[in-house]
């Protein structure tokens, strides 16, 4: 018993007091403290505490490598089981050797077989050079399991230090990536290599910091100010997710009346169609208790994605945001929405689509960068999705963008429109310029031209862009009262709740689009 106690204490000490102190000096928690903050108190059960490297070259034989630089095990979050691994930077810089990788693979296999989410807390110097190609093979084993688990169990990566080279591809293969300002960095090649290769002088934060990946690359979905804040966000996200593809997202008791009206939306219908607004205000109005958990809120702001509850059930929201780029769809918005929709479809979460879109964002840069190819991802995601799909056209819905946003013939289950909706091939102004070009050119004064244009725009909007005209053809199921929007959406979702049995659908994984 004494030997067991001594051996265990030595392993629990990590890299020793000096390295722990160095970790603290950087404003970072230790690997064990992170698990403590993330999991329910006292729930963590560690595995493979005494595993260590078998490599002996380059002085490894004489070094103490407790746990081979990673802590693995299982526990609970909000009473629900999860598997977790936490890299320990105090032990050889958290570098990944073969034993380190096999510990991670073991806990991922455990999560896969027992159908529970897996969470990785990453803080590593990368591949362990002393172990040569064995460390690279270890990464390959992890990547294989990331793909195997994709669309089967939720996978979450939390970046809490450096993550470089091949190590970045495991987080990229997972469903959600969290980063913390000031301590999290991700890049394929570091600042020194960039300077040698291209001559560019760049800092760690500018190259691969949390804000860069949250706003520019889209690699990171959530940014936190501190580690405790990050763990709080992870716990909140999991409240909206099922344990696996065979379950539904957890339902909660709903104190917010289903019949609660939304009179503010009546005033919204009177707003000038060209005036921008933040779509989050609409979502807050209809969501239970006005709560909305946004995903990727700093990236592609012209489309908003996230989770809310309606009538106690989890719903995934995809919405155009006129407050940024007029809500038009561009390359980044297509990628962001398509991947989120595919996640919702994999894990049995209904999709609510709120439409206010003037079209695709125009420009040479967009065309040359592949808006056709990227925009097709959004079309594919909606057509592929077999979960309940409810769509509400709030204001503008023009051209191909109208089709792409879960229109009726893309197999939307229920498609509603507010009285303020304008659904047409293009906006009234553009249509009038084409259809009545001769009449406008014949005008003798600018005032006469403006007066004729306004009259023709009004006539076109009433005849061809009216929601009633669209409803008469069956392209929307009903034009609804704005104050009844919450009730109508909840009723539709409750009717559709048995549309698909969890786990019976084909699993195509959640490829990083």
Question: What can you tell me about this protein's structure?
Answer:
With 513 residues, the chain is α/β, with parallel strands linked by helices. It has three domains: 19-238, 2-enoyl-CoA Hydratase, Chain A, domain 1 (Alpha-Beta Complex), CATH 3.90.226; 264-426 and 466-495, 2-enoyl-CoA Hydratase, Chain A, domain 1 (Alpha-Beta Complex); 428-464, no CATH class. The chain is built from 21 helices and 17 strands. The strands form three sheets. Strands 10, 11, 12, 13, 14, 15, 16 and 17 form an eight-stranded mixed sheet that branches. A seven-stranded mixed sheet has the order 1-2-3-4-5-7-9, with helices on both faces. A two-stranded parallel sheet has the order 6-8. A hairpin with a 2-residue loop joins strand 11 (303-310) and strand 12. Helix 13 (331-346) packs parallel to helix 15. It is elongated and about 95 Å long. The model has no long low-confidence stretch (mean pLDDT 91).
List keywords for this structure.
3 domains; 513 residues; 17% strand; seven-stranded mixed β-sheet; alpha/beta; 17 strands; 2-enoyl-CoA Hydratase, Chain A, domain 1; single chain; elongated; eight-stranded mixed β-sheet
């Amino acid at each position: 018993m004494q030997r067991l106690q001594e051996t265990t204490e030595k392993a629990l000490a990590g890299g020793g007091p000096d390295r722990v102190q160095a970790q603290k000096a950087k404003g970072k928690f230790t690997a064990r403290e992170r698990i403590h903050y993330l999991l329910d108190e006292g729930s963590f059960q560690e595995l493979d505490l005494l595993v260590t490297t078998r490599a002996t070259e380059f002085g490894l034989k004489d070094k103490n490598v407790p746990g081979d630089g990673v802590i693995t095990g299982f526990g609970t979050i909000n009473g629900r089981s999860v598997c977790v691994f936490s890299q320990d930077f105090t032990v050889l810089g958290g570098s990944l050797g073969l034993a380190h990788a096999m510990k991670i693979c073991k806990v991922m296999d455990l999560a896969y077989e027992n159908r529970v989410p897996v969470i990785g807390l990453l803080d590593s110097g990368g591949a362990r050079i002393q172990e040569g190609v064995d460390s690279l093979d270890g990464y390959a084993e992890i990547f294989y399991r990331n793909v195997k688990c994709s669309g089967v169990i939720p996978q979450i990566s939390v970046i809490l230090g450096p993550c470089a080279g091949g190590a970045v591809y495991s987080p990229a293969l997972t469903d959600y990536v969290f980063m913390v300002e000031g301590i999290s960095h991700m890049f394929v090649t570091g600042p020194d290599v960039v300077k040698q290769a291209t001559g560019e002088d760049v800092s760690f934060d500018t190259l691969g910091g949390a804000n860069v990946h949250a706003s520019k690359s889209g690699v990171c979905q959530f940014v936190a100010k501190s580690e405790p804040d990050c763990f709080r966000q992870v716990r909140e996200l999991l409240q909206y997710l099922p344990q696996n593809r065979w379950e539904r997202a957890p339902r909660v008791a709903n104190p917010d009346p289903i019949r609660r009206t939304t009179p503010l939306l009546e005033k919204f219908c009177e707003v000038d169609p060209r005036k921008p607004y933040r779509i989050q205000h609409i979502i807050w109005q209809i969501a239970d208790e006005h709560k909305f958990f946004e995903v990727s809120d700093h990236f592609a702001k012209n489309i908003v994605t996230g989770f809310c509850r309606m009538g106690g059930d989890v719903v995934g929201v995809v919405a155009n945001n006129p407050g940024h780029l007029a809500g038009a769809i561009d390359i980044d918005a297509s990628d962001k929405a398509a991947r989120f929709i595919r996640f919702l479809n994999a894990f049995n979460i209904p999709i609510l689509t709120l439409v206010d879109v003037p079209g695709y964002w125009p420009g040479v840069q967009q065309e040359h960068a592949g808006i056709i190819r990227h925009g097709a991802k959004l079309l594919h995601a909606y057509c592929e999705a077999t979960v309940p799909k409810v769509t509400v056209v709030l204001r503008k819905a023009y051209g191909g963008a109208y089709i792409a946003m879960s229109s009726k013939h893309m197999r939307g289950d229920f498609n509603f429109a507010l009285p303020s909706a304008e659904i047409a091939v293009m906006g009234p102004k553009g249509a009038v310029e084409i259809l009545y070009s001769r009449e406008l050119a014949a005008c003798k004064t600018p005032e006469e031209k403006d007066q004729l244009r306004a009259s023709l725009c009004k006539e076109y909007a009433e005849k061809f862009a009216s929601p009633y005209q669209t409803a008469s053809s069956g392209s929307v199921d009903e034009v609804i009262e704005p104050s009844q929007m919450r009730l109508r959406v909840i009723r539709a979702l409750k009717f559709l709740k048995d549309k698909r049995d969890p786990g019976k659908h084909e699993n195509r994984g959640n490829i990083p689009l």
